[in-house]
Amino acid sequence: DLVRQVPRLKEVLAAMRIPVRESEGFEADDVLGTLAAQAARRRVPTLIVSTDKDLLQLVGPDVSVYNPSKEVYLDPEGVRAFFGVPPEKVVDVLSLWGDSSDNVPGVPGVGEKTAKKLVEEHGSVDGLLRDLDTLKNPRLKDKIRSNLDKLEMSRTLVTIRTDLDVDLDLDAFALAEPDRAALQKLFKDLEFGSLAAEYAPRREPRAARYATVLDVDALRTFAASPGDAP
């Protein structure tokens, strides 16, 4: 059902003059990451609006994230305060912890606190794997050792690509007025009555005519033609 709606959604976005960027075979996060990386290289301040934890890895001097559910803006220091690790460690934490909302398995039995503690102590997933034999908790050591395939797959899944063939055309992203006629037709076809009414042609306000009434005769004259009254 969702797939069938995508072409219609693109029609609505085009009529709203909202640019669409996509790359076949890649997720939206990778497109966001590529655009954010290009903007950062050009020192264009960039704000990503999302509640996805994996997008925190993109935060840097010129890239921040706004989490609408928490109503917080996250710069690099904000990510550390909000998530417990700096942006460059987000991938390591999520590789161990996983993310059920994105079907990222992580290491079974390793939760948020343990993942962050391991990354803090060993610096990264690679550092943890180098130090694996030194872990004092034998159960934790066995969990990681027996799930190395899930760990590596999770790291691949949560790492956002920033090198797609997607061009950041700032002119295309300029704010533009929507095509109200096209939107009204689309919303009528889709039977979205309220939205169709919202984009109906605007009636031009009628020019007002004013008169100063100072005596009874002027009042009678004015009252005799109420249709011309503003």
Would you mind describing this structure in some detail?
With 230 residues, this protein is mostly helical. Helix 4 (90-97) crosses helix 5 and helix 4 packs across helix 8 (148-158). The protein is built from eleven helices and three strands, in the order ααβββααααααααα. Strand 2 and strand 3 form a beta hairpin. The chain has helices at 2-15, 28-41, 76-83, 90-97, 112-122, 125-130, 138-145, 148-158, 180-189, 193-198, 216-223; strands at residues 46-49, 63-67, 72-74. It is 45% helix and 5% strand.
Q: State which percent range the strand residues make up.
A: 5-15%
Categorize the overall geometry: elongated
Give me the strand/helix succession: HHEEEHHHHHHHHH
- Radius of gyration, Cα only, in angstroms? 28 Å
Placed side by side, the strands forming the largest sheet appear as: 1-2-3
Uncertain ranges: none
Query: What kind of sheet is the major sheet?
Result: 3 strands, mixed
| Share of helix, binned | 40-55%
- Would you tell me the overall average pLDDT? 93
Q: State the end-to-end distance.
A: 51 Å
What structural class do the secondary elements suggest? Answer: mainly alpha
Number of strands: 3
> Counting H and I runs of at least 4 residues, what is the number of helices?
11
